[in-house]
């Protein structure tokens, strides 16, 4: 019997295909770095949990190099060996940066089988032509005593969806545009006079009546300060197990 193969294929300067192949069944997770907002939603929604040895440090199968503990100059890296090709990351990605293809067809089985709900999408086009959508609702408060307009402009530029604008010596956030990604709150750590508080309260406009996997996803995405909550060691990773079952597959790889 042919063994499953998993590999990363660089298609061009921006696009990488992460491929899982078994016999004539091929799944491809396509990542377009040129569209990536570095929002981190994919990392938080991924059901796979990888525990590094016995350390407290845990990660999922996708995330920024820092979140993944992997040296890379890419915005997002995928651990192809651990990825279950469930498509959860493609389902939530606000930048339409990730797509899952099953045997050449764009598919989201977890939505098709009702495990995850559909977003009632409100798509916005950025100045560069990129499409983005907002997937969660909540609040953002920026407190600034910074008076240096160059620093204020540099801080506003941290936002990938142009939700922040300097008005005189104040920063204004357009709450309709803000995708609550925590990028500015992380950037604020490098600014002495600026702080940001963000809360994600609920998912925006979803359709359908999803399964219990949804509760696990909610915990991870809406968790306080966007940190992954409820992550367990791989052997206890009920969310990943549930997702694999809902996909009608059994996990084939060895635990590490
Ligand atoms: S969810 Fe999409 S846009 Fe956000 S970091 Fe992941 S790949 Fe990039
Ligand atoms: S304002 Fe902050 S939280 Fe909102 S989209 Fe921009 S970087 Fe993300």
In whole angstroms, how far apart are the ends? 23 Å
What order do the helices and strands follow? EEEHEEEHEHEEHEEEEHEEHEEHH
Question: Roughly what percent helix?
Answer: 10-25%
* Order of strands across the main sheet: 1-2-3-8-9
Which runs of at least 5 residues are low in confidence (pLDDT < 50)?
225-236, 251-256
Shape: globular
Mean pLDDT: 84
| Structural class by sheet pairing and helices | alpha+beta
Rounded to an integer in angstroms, the radius of gyration calculated over CA atoms is 19 Å
Number of helices in the DSSP assignment = 8
Domain tally = 2
Q: What composes the largest sheet?
A: 5 strands, antiparallel
Q: In words, what does this structure look like?
A:
This protein is an alpha+beta fold. Helix content is 20%, strand content 29%. It has 2 domains: 5-119 and 208-246, no CATH class; 136-202, 2-Layer Sandwich (Alpha-Beta Plaits). Residues 140, 158-159, 161, 163-164, 173, 178-184, 198 line the site of one iron/sulfur cluster (SF4).
SSE layout:
Layout: E1 5-10, E2 15-22, E3 25-32, H1 41-45, E4 50-51, E5 58-59, E6 62-63, H2 65-68, E7 77-78, H3 88-92, E8 98-102, E9 105-106, H4 109-112, E10 118-119, E11 123-125, E12 131-133, E13 136-144, H5 149-156, E14 164-167, E15 170-173, H6 183-187, E16 194-203, E17 206-207, H7 213-222, H8 238-246
Antiparallel strand pairs: 1-2, 2-3, 3-8, 4-5, 6-7, 8-9, 10-17, 11-12, 13-16, 14-15
The structure holds iron/sulfur cluster (2 copies).
Residues 140, 158-159, 161, 163-164, 173, 178-184, 198 line the site of one iron/sulfur cluster.
